[in-house]
Specification:
- By secondary structure, the protein is α/β, with parallel strands linked by helices.
- It has two domains: 133 residues, Rossmann fold, CATH 3.40.50; 82 residues, Arc Repressor Mutant, subunit A.
- It starts with a strand and ends with a strand.
- The chain is built from ten helices and eight strands.
- It is 48% helix and 15% strand.
- The strands form two sheets. It has a six-stranded parallel beta sheet with strand order 2-1-3-4-5-6, with helices on both faces.
- Helix 3 links the parallel strand 3 and strand 4.
Length: 227
């Protein structure tokens, strides 16, 4: 079964280029194109895509608001932000809106295809520069004593001690291979832990897990653990 992709960008040439890239990749199918956020929200409901490639800056409703509305629906598709801009304000707003990935428009073809496939599989693929700055954003924040106590979601109480440890390591930026090496377990065991953490906490992907780990105080600025 093909992964159904919706393209949302206000530039027809960009959409045409993305369509050529995706239609040439095995198992991917472009099922619609939107020129603005309003059209993207409507097509996300009618065309039933698995993944939306969403531009950030569009006339009328921008990609951030469109993403927020799309992911709030039942059986929502995954959204990957694709933009020429990698400014912090867009990165953080996109992730908080519910995006599952963030790539720049100058990304290699293989990276665009990989991002769509990763999002469809429930994973997150983010440009390395964006990942580094996402972690740095939290790591450079005020010291715990200088800010209000973090809000700890009640759902964290459902995690086992091992799952809390894994969540902390995710918050520190470790990928699955690094988790497996650190915990001395198999890749499949790591994937099971990550899947259960996301399910218990109602999170879409590990990007959301990173944000929660810092906001809940599980990982503190500078990478220290609160456990």
């Amino acid at each position: 079964m093909s992964v159904r992709v919706l393209l949302a960008d206000d530039q027809p040439l960009v959409r045409a280029g993305l369509e050529m890239i995706l239609d040439a990749a095995a198992g991917l199918e472009v099922v619609g194109q939107a020129g603005d956020g309003v059209e993207a929200v409507a097509l996300a409901a009618s065309a039933a895509p698995d993944v939306v490639l969403m531009d950030v800056r569009m006339p009328g409703m921008d990609g951030i608001e469109a993403t927020r509305r799309i992911v709030a629906t039942d059986d929502a598709p995954r959204v990957v932000m694709l933009t020429t801009f990698d400014l912090d304000e867009y990165v953080f707003a996109a992730f908080r809106a519910g995006a599952s990935g963030f790539l720049l428009k100058d990304a290699e073809r293989r990276d665009i295809v990989a991002a769509v496939r990763a999002a469809a599989a429930g994973d997150a693929l983010v440009a390395p520069s964006v990942t580094r700055r996402l972690i740095a954003h939290f790591a450079s924040g005020p010291e715990p004593a200088a800010q209000a106590p973090p809000q700890r979601p009640a759902a964290l109480d459902e995690l086992t001690p091992r799952e809390l440890e894994v969540l902390e390591l995710i918050g520190r930026g470790l990928n699955n291979a690094e988790l497996a090496e650190h915990l001395v377990v198999s890749d499949s065991t790591v994937k099971t832990h990550v899947s259960r953490i996301l399910w218990k906490l109602g999170l879409r992907d590990r990007v959301q897990a990173v944000i929660l780990a810092y906001e809940a105080g599980i990982v503190r600025p500078g990478g220290a653990s609160s456990r």
